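User: Hey, my collaborator sent me this sequence without any context and asked if I could get a structure. I don't really work with proteins. Can you help?
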Amino acid sequence: MTDELIIETRGLTKEFNGFVAVNGVDFRVRRGRIHALIGPNGAGKTTLFNLLTKFLAPTRGRILFGGEDVTDRGPAELARRGMVRSFQMSAVFPHLSVLENVRIGLQRGLGTSFHFWRPESSLRVLDARVMELLEAVDLAAYARMVAVELPYGHKRALELATTLAMDPQLMLLDEPTQGMGHEDVDRITALIRKVAGSRTVLMVEHNMGVVSRIADRITVLQRGRIIADGTYAEVSGNPQVMEAYMGAPA
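Assistant: No problem. I've predicted the 3D structure and written it out in structure-token form, which is a compact way to encode the shape of the chain:
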């Protein structure tokens, strides 16, 4: 781990017709950590994710990535710089094979991301790396299966492999265990820890069991403001956090 900041916001604010969804947020994520962003419904977590990945433009404030101001940059440029996001719903190409899904992520490195008309034989140079990534998420045995046939938890694992194929510096995971049963939650939690490696992971997650097991640091939002930041032990005993989740003073 390092104390170097990979992403930072300064006074980040987003207003929608007078409603302040994110309110003057100063947020820091250090390189090489798994950082969880939590809070009750309506706290502004997804809005903050959308601001960081430039799906929304801030009303005020600045965003720095790798020490450089990227407030006015677009989402495609941030992706090229190494900030890669997954979404709440599994985002795979359902009628392509598991192998083909991951290979599309790797094509970016060849500069052929949108050359879908190229013969498959020209892309086989990527297959060894595809299989390494599938091994990392325990999907090697499913390489030839059509993605739509995968169980839900395996689709999320495939999404992790596809994200890794883009060689991210910062992986943003939006509710990676949403809608899963206990067994799949445990599996995906273990995979996130496994694939994080030297990368940085920023995740929005409601499951406190997941957060307590893998997050190095946790930031808590309420009504668009940060009310706590620290380790799980520090934030779980914070009276403001307890009030935000329980709805009454601790």
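In plain terms: The mean pLDDT is 88. You can pass these tokens on to your collaborator as they are.
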